[in-house]
Design brief:
This is tRNA/tmRNA (uracil-C(5))-methyltransferase. The structure is a single chain. The protein has about 375 residues and is of the alpha/beta class. The chain has two domains: about 210 residues, Vaccinia Virus protein VP39 (Rossmann fold); about 120 residues, Beta Barrel (OB fold (Dihydrolipoamide Acetyltransferase, E2P)). It is built from eleven helices and 17 strands. It is globular and about 65 Å long. The two termini are about 45 Å apart.
């Protein structure tokens, strides 16, 4: 099925098939029926990237089938994209085609939007961007009422800002997130909300339980999970390797008034070495890891899953909250983690409708 146009009548059937397949795959580790969180059947993607097809002095949005990069098909709509993306696509394309400066050697356009209605457009070129381009791009920005960002080789021209602000209502409280262009954000906004709400439900719910331990989070990104979960713990320590994401997380911590959360710029492998005192880190010179009493660890790793050392390290904690964008590598890790822990909760999040991909979550408790 072409993902620019989908048949929403088929959504539930496809979701049921994915759930059945995943439930069978997880059978060696749990007989729990999964908690299933469906996506909106359309307009669910908050970000999109289009190749720009140049032909006969005109440019159009285009997509390609995998492995067929010389056979583009031009698109006029993108029903999986947010309504804001679909609103912006026609006037942006008209304006680009009306300007040779904006059209010439444009090869990619990216949209970044939010559930709260914010948007950012990035235009990417095979040419240097000079004063004339900036002048016309500023006029376009004024016309659309949306920040424009220009990219070329070794160039990034920010006309207003290079981020959007997302506002998510999670269990009756609004959280605000700065999401920076080019850094990782969850693509499906409604599923993101479901994932955070589910993760919160897996955390201590009473003040007595909250006082009994701290939270460690690896791969925290911009604080997507970290910030809402902080209310459930005495103290929270989170790690992230991307400097851009760490900076955004620090701003998001301040914007949401969280005062019990610290972020360290470390990879999961480095944190494992630090907590095991294998070697010192200058970034930890004034930081006391021994002051934390971790009861729960949250991991949301890349598609490759957890490396062997990190997997062994998190197995020390009483509770493991493991959210995965790749159930195959999560299953590989569960082969080890279920030697010491049992699965108490199991969830399926349909982050990527109409594809074979999905996200899964498990709460593991020490046996």
């Amino acid at each position: 099925m072409a993902l620019h146009r989908v048949n929403t009548d088929e959504y539930q059937q496809q979701l049921d098939q994915k759930v059945a397949r995943l439930r069978e795959a997880y059978t060696p580790y749990t007989d729990l029926a999964p908690e299933v969180f469906p996506s909106p059947p359309s307009h669910y993607r908050m970000r999109a990237e289009f190749k720009m097809w140049q032909d006969g002095g005109r440019v159009d949005y285009a997509m390609y089938k995998q492995g067929e990069y010389k056979k583009p098909f031009v698109i006029q709509e993108f029903t999986v994209g947010s309504r804001r993306i679909n609103e912006l696509m026609p006037p942006l394309l008209d304006a680009i085609n009306a300007s040779e400066m904006l059209r010439k050697r444009l090869f990619c356009t990216e949209f970044l939007t939010t559930l709260s209605g914010d948007a950012l457009i990035t235009l990417i070129y095979h040419k240097p961007l000079g004063d004339e381009w900036e002048s016309e791009a500023r006029a376009l920005q004024e016309q659309l009422g949306v920040p424009i960002l220009g990219r070329s080789r070794k160039q990034k021209l920010v006309l207003e800002r290079d981020y959007v602000i997302e506002k998510l209502d999670i269990d009756g409280r609004e959280y605000q997130y700065k999401q920076v262009e080019g850094s990782f954000t969850q693509p499906n906004g409604e599923i993101c909300r479901s994932m955070i709400s589910w993760a919160k439900s897996c955390c201590p719910q009473t003040s007595e339980d909250k006082a009994s331990g701290d939270l460690l989070e690896l791969y925290c990104g911009n604080g997507n999970f970290t910030i809402p979960l902080a209310a459930h713990f005495r103290k929270v320590l989170a790690t992230e390797i991307s400097k851009v994401s760490v900076n955004a997380a620090q701003e998001n911590i301040a914007a949401n008034g969280v005062d019990n959360l610290a972020i360290l710029r470390l990879s999961s492998e480095e944190f494992t070495q630090a907590i095991d005192k294998v070697r010192p880190f200058r970034r930890l010179k004034d930081f006391d890891l021994d002051s934390y009493d971790f009861s729960t660890v949250l991991v949301d790793p890349p598609r490759a899953g957890l490396d062997q050392d990190t997997c062994a390290m998190i197995a020390r904690f009483p509770k493991i909250l493991y959210i995965s964008c790749n159930p195959e590598t999560q299953l590989e890790n569960l082969a080890e983690l279920t030697k010491t822990h049992r699965i108490e909760r199991f969830a399926i999040f349909d982050q990527f409708p109409y594809t074979d991909h999905t996200e899964s979550g498990v709460l593991l408790v020490r046996k």
